[in-house]
Amino acid sequence: MPETRITEAMRSAIGRQSRRQVSFPVSESHIRKWALAVYFPDPPPREFIDPDCASSSRWGGMVAPQEFNPFNWLAAETEEPDVVVDINDPDRTEILLGVEGPHLKFQLNGGREVEYGEFIRPGDVITSVSRLADYHEREGRLGLMLFTLSEDTWTNQRSELVKRTRSTLIRY
Amino acid sequence: MPQTDDPCTAEVGDVLRPFVRETGFAAWNRFAAVNYEFVPIHMDDEAGRAAGYPTAFGMGNLQWSYLHNLLRDWLGDRGKILKLAVQFRAPNLKGQTVTARGVITSTRDEPDGRAIDLDVWTEDQNGTRLAPGSATVVLRP
Questions:
Q1: What is the ipTM score, two decimals?
Q2: Element spanning B67, H or E
Q3: Chain A residue with minimum CA distance to B63
Q4: What distance in Å separates the CA atoms of residue A128 and residue A21, rounded to the nearest whole number?
Q5: How far is the alpha carbon of A23 from chain B, nearest alpha carbon, in Å?
């Protein structure tokens, strides 16, 4: 078992932008489908379905569930290195940064911290900028675990902060 | 501990009305479809076993949504979530009943309104915590 999976090349990539994306305009239909899925099998709150109901809320119209993801399926623009990499490839983080990955087989979502700003509303166009923030390692039940921290900042078309996320990817 | 139904009068120690769901492919496939999260460990028991678990397991992102559902079912349009931090400690295995819970740890008045900190978590039907975390919400003045 190696003592570390974190190479010099990986360390040199800390702080680098891995991806910038711009969403298509968010639609009411996106919001409805998201709400239906996360509340399944019960119906979601009516303000996520019915714009008339939402317009009488204190938010003055339909807002997306705060954890809504407008970048699923397709983004209007994606700036990332011109490399072909599978979305499920465990080395995706490093491949997108142009360095060799640790070649670990499994990956898990290790946790995240989010700070929310403005709501997402129908018609909004969201820009996401992702950076590699840090690496660290810990011995776990399944061997040496590599923790990768990344930071993703979302703003809307008025450059207002929508969300800042720090996520941890665990690989082993 | 008393259950709070109104965040405006909630006090330290009050618990939120829990958010409970049976979990398995019916929920996970729907979430995969809206989040474009088609990962074999969430869709195929064989892939779950190959990763070291007895079955396929649910998305951390869906646990994340359940914690948001817990908070917004309580808040309605009286407030919004400012911060949420969660660790995904144990897998949400197929067939588990997942309950999202929250307890208020502090409250304070801030310029933007009353802020409330909570411990939040999801647990399985045996009370084992799957995704523990903390949250801050702010009530609209």
A1: 0.95
A2: helix B60-75
A3: A38
A4: 5
A5: 14
Q: How far is CA A58 from CA B6, B70, B116, B117, B139, in A?
A: 16, 19, 19, 22, 12
Please indicate whether, in this complex, the C-beta atoms of B30 and A36 are within 8 angstroms of each other: yes
DSSP letter at B8?
G
**Tens digits of pLDDT across chain A (172 residues):** 568 999 999 999 999 999 999 999 999 999 999 999 999 999 999 999 999 999 999 999 999 999 999 999 999 999 988 888 888 899 999 998 999 999 999 998 788 999 999 999 999 999 999 999 999 999 988 889 999 999 999 999 999 999 999 999 999 9
Of A57, A72, A116, the CB nearest to B34: A72
Q: Do the chains contact at B26 and A113, CB–CB below 8 Å?
A: no
For A22, A78, A81, B27, the CA distances from B33, given in Å and listed in that order, are: 20, 21, 26, 10
Same structural domain, A89 and A123:
yes
Examine residue A145 and state whether it is found in any structural domain, yes or no.
yes
Answer yes or no: is A72 within a domain.
no
Q: Please report, in angstroms and rounded to a whole number, the separation of the first and last CA atoms in chain B.
A: 27
Give residue A163's domain range.
8-25+77-171
Q: What is the pTM of this model?
A: 0.89
**Cα(B25)–Cα(B56) distance, rounded to whole angstroms?**
9
Provide DSSP, A90-116.
TTHHHHHHTS-----S-EEEEEEEEEE
* HSE-CB for A118 with a 13 A CA cutoff: 16
